[in-house]
Design goal:
The protein is of the alpha/beta class and 244 residues long. The protein has one domain: Rossmann fold, CATH 3.40.50. Helix content is 38%, strand content 18%. The chain is built from nine helices and seven strands; from the N terminus they run βααβαβαβααββαααβ. It has a seven-stranded mixed β-sheet, with helices on both faces. α3 packs antiparallel against α7 and α4 packs across α5. Pfam families: PIG-L.
Length: 244
């Protein structure tokens, strides 16, 4: 008989992989939580599926945007203790659910061998539709398919093992951000300065927002209240799916 799945997240894991569509996605939704993990000794890797070349709010030439946004994401990662940042280079704004994308994410899962994967919810969040960019939902669904069954199945994408020596790997937990069924909150009040520092690194994306800090902390305070945290606390929320 198969034992029941856990009902709560593991208190500590050795490795986490965050798979997001664009540079800055991880920082808006997850950087505070990442800061708590790195402070506790967890190794965190970022896998950014696009270079964010369709983003920005100024007259920066399009051909310069990929390099700028990669540099911004690397600086933001450093602000919360992450040094391993990988870019897959898929086209921004044009992601589709393809076998190639599933294979590319499966490759990184097998390389990093994380116990926990963080990604975007594949479900639309109607209360905050800006969080449900089509690329976000595509990456969320692609990552879930990479977690199960692709990365754990030695017969899926056999070239990963035959040509690259990447053995199958089973992920135990997936944390979905911007989910309509969030069931777990992380209190990040004590690391909010690190999250905001990471967000400020994304100059091409946030320089037009004079009230960035108030905007971000406002919805984080609302999240905290929704999960019953005391007044004055700030939180990030996830739907935790046990996958092993």
């Amino acid at each position: 008989m198969t034992p029941p799945l856990p009902r709560t997240p593991a208190p500590h894991v050795e490795r986490v992989l965050c798979v997001l569509a664009h540079p800055d996605d991880v920082d808006f939704g997850t950087a505070g939580t990442v800061a708590t993990w790195t402070a506790a000794g967890t190794e965190v890797t970022y896998c950014v599926v696009t270079d964010g070349d369709a983003g920005g709010f100024d007259e920066t030439p399009r051909e310069q945007m990929p390099a700028l946004r990669r540099a911004e994401q690397q600086a933001a990662a450093a602000a919360v203790g992450v040094s391993d940042v990988r870019f897959l280079g898929h086209p921004d704004g044009r992601l589709e659910l393809t076998l190639d994308l599933r294979r590319d994410i499966s490759r990184v899962i097998r390389q990093v061998r994380p116990q926990r994967v963080v990604t975007s919810s594949p479900e639309r969040l109607w209360d905050r539709i800006g969080a449900s960019h089509p690329d976000h939902m595509t990456v969320g669904e692609s990552t879930l398919r990479a977690v199960y069954p692709d990365a754990r199945n030695p017969f899926a994408f056999p070239e990963l093992l035959a040509d690259e020596g990447l053995a199958a790997w089973t992920v135990s937990e997936v944390w979905l951000g911007a989910s309509p069924r969030a069931d777990h909150a992380v209190d990040v009040t004590d690391v909010i300065d690190r999250k905001l520092a990471a967000l400020r690194c994304h100059v091409t994306q946030v320089s037009h927002l004079p009230d960035l800090d108030r905007f971000v902390t406002g919805w984080m305070a609302e999240t905290a209240r929704g999960f019953g945290l005391p007044d004055g606390r700030l939180a990030e929320a996830f739907h935790v799916v046990h996958t092993a």
